[in-house]
Every structure is written in C-alpha cells, then in structure tokens.
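ok new one. same drill as before - structure tokens go in, u give me an amino acid for every spot. 343 of them this time. try not to just spam alanines like last time pls lmao
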C-alpha cells in the first residue's frame, strides 16, 4: 500500500483488459494508484476487469492504440501491453498486429513524452525467434524469420523495441523494455492456443492432451503474479537501465514433462495425441534472468507445480460457472473469419 505522504500516481495500462494487463491493474490499484485501463477488447474482455469497474480509482477507456484517444489528465506511468499474444490470435489479422506494435507503440511513446511519464514496453522472448544460443541473454540478437507467419509479432515487437530505444537515446522518454517469456495463470483464454491453457482445458474436459511435434521442445513458464512484480520493479527502477530486461522463470520443461504434470492433476486424462509442429515454432526457450536479478533484485517465487494447481482451479471454477465462456470467440478470431470470407 502507498504511504500517506506519497503522491497518488496515475498509471495508464494499454492492454489492461487482457490476461497480464488485468493483473497489473489489480496490483497498481492495491498499491493505491489511479489506473486508466485502455483496451480495444480485440483479445481481452471487460470480464477481466469487471470487479474493478466500481473502484473509485479505476477508469476503463475503449480505444485502439493505433488511433489513440486523447488524454488530458497528467499521467505518471504508461505501460504498453496492448497486443495479441498467442500465435492464433496475433496471426488472425497480422497487419493489425504489426500496426499495433509499430503505430500503437509510437502513439503511446508520444503520449509518454507529452506527459513526461515513465514508459514500459511489454516485449517478448519471441524477439529471439528460434534461438541458437541457450539460455537466452539480452545481448543475443536472435534467429527470427522476418517474412514468416510469426513475423507480424516477432518483427513488430522488435520494431517497437527499436522505437523505445530511439526515444531513450534522444532523451525524449524514459522507456523500459521487458522481454517477457511464457506466462500463465488465471484469466488466460481457454481457447487461445497457449500450451498451458490448451492442456488444462483438455484435461478438465476429459479429452486427450494435444502435443505439437515430439514434445521434446522446451519452454519456461512464469506465473502471472511473478511477472507483474517484475514489470512494476522495472517500471520503478531508477536510473532507467536503458537496455532490455528478460522477465521469465528460468525453470525449463519439455512439453512432455508439462503434460505429465497436468496428467497428475487430472489422473483420468485419457493420454496424449501428437500433431505436427507449427511453422517456426522454437525448439528451446529459457531466459537468463541475471540482469533482472542484478538490476531489480527480482526472481520468480511460484514453482510450476503450484502455479499449475492455481490455474487449474481457476479454469475449473470458470468453465463450470459459464458454459459459454469455453466457446467464447475473441474479436481477433471474428476478424480472421471475416478476412477469410473476403479472400
Ligand atoms: N502472456 C505471455 O506469455 C506473454 C509473453 C510474452 C509477451 N507478452 C506480451 O504481454 C502483453 C500482454 O499479453 P497477454 O498475454 O496479456 O495478452 P492478451 O491478448 O490477453 O492481452 C492483450 C490486450 O491488448 C489488447 N489489445 C490488442 N491490440 C490492441 C490495440 N491495437 N489497441 C488496444 N488494445 C489492444 C487486447 O484486447 C488485450 O486485452 C502483450 O503485449 C504480449 O505481447 C505476453
């Protein structure tokens, strides 16, 4: 909580109605800040912030960051989390994804400059592409296919990082860049193609677990509360590191190991089915978090076994509460269907 003599900070969170953004809204409100949540709901939902709608320090604004609404009141901090994050969602309308990353980030950086607000860009481990160095340190420049189906996101996020560091070099904005590795937890969409939500929803529904490829590919999974603590620490650290910072859990698991952990939570799961690996899917992912440890004194606290239990409990409660939640399509999925008809 904020002490009485600290000034209330006004924090704008673009993408605040999404999975990570809604937890960040919760954390800033709990600290006593005023939160302006900006979202177009293309992949997020008002449901994620519904409990906050009557909070006196919370304001929800529907706006697309590619064509951002004007904000007159003073802003102290701006987070840019606005971007579809899972491959099926960001590939649904790749031009929208790229323009969100480039034009949208540019608009928010200009807003930060006008308000002299600190800025944090949610970048991604996808900037490392299918990495040939392991674990990934921030000085590794990555192995990205710049014309493939994931490029709208990987290259979009790389361009957004470049914009941030141009603004920092020109001393126009104190921009910070978090390279986020796979994050999971309550409020993930059940049908957005992320591995943990996929497997948990299949297990809860009594379906076999789908593994893409051999299952020997690895990922590192960070529980959402750990990520939010890291984002807030990076936003607040003084001086600005002036370089990207990896945020993720360095524990590394094969997808097969993950499936076994989920089977142990749901012992009646009827086994595993294998499907072909999507194009450009990375083989190995593990963050080197020494920079975050040194600069922010941050490291994840929640082990995968505990985070999976908490997430599974949330999915079980939510899926049984609302039958239509399981089949809810996002605007991104509707756009993909409309584009397919136009073609
Ligand atoms: N969750 C992860 O594992 C992960 C990993 C790496 C990076 N990230 C980054 O973190 C951020 C949040 O990810 P998430 O998992 O919460 O995804 P999410 O899809 O749940 O949230 C993104 C939010 O941004 C909104 N949005 C998208 N485009 C917009 C636009 N043009 N204008 C306004 N709002 C827009 C969506 O409606 C949604 O509410 C994203 O920028 C993502 O790239 C997430």
């Amino acid at each position: 909580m904020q002490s009485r003599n600290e000034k209330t900070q006004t924090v704008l969170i673009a993408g605040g109605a999404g999975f990570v953004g809604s937890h960040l809204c919760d954390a800033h409100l709990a600290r006593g800040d005023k939160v302006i949540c900006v979202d177009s709901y293309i992949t997020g939902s008002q449901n994620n912030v519904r409990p906050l709608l009557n909070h006196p320090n919370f304001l929800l604004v529907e706006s697309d960051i590619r064509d951002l609404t004007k904000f007159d009141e003073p802003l102290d901090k701006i987070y840019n989390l606005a971007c579809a994050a899972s491959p099926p969602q960001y590939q649904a309308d790749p031009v929208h994804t790229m323009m969100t990353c480039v034009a949208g980030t540019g608009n928010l950086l200009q807003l930060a400059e006008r308000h002299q607000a600190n800025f944090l860009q949610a970048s991604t481990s996808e900037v490392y592409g299918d990495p040939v160095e392991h674990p990934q340190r921030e000085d590794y420049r990555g192995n990205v296919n710049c014309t493939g189906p994931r490029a709208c996101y990987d290259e979009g996020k790389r361009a957004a990082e470049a914009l941030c560091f141009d603004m920092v070099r020109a001393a126009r904005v104190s921009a910070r860049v978090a390279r986020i590795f796979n994050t999971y937890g309550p409020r993930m969409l059940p049908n957005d193609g992320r591995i943990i939500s996929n497997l948990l929803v299949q297990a809860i529904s009594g379906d076999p677990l789908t593994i893409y490829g051999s299952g020997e590919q690895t990922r590192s999974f960070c529980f959402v509360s750990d990520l939010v603590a890291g984002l807030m620490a990076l936003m607040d650290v003084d001086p600005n590191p002036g370089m990207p910072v990896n945020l993720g859990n360095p524990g590394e698991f094969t997808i097969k190991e993950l499936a076994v952990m989920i089977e142990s939570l749901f012992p009646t799961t009827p086994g595993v089915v294998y499907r072909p690996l999507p194009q450009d899917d990375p083989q190995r992912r593990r963050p080197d978090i020494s920079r975050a440890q040194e600069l922010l004194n941050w490291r994840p606290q929640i082990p995968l076994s505990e985070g999976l239990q908490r997430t599974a409990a949330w999915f079980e409660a939510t899926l049984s509460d609302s039958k239509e939640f399981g089949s809810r399509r996002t605007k991104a999925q509707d756009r993909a269907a409309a584009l397919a008809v136009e073609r």
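DSSP finds eleven helices and 13 strands in the chain. and btw The mean pLDDT is 92.
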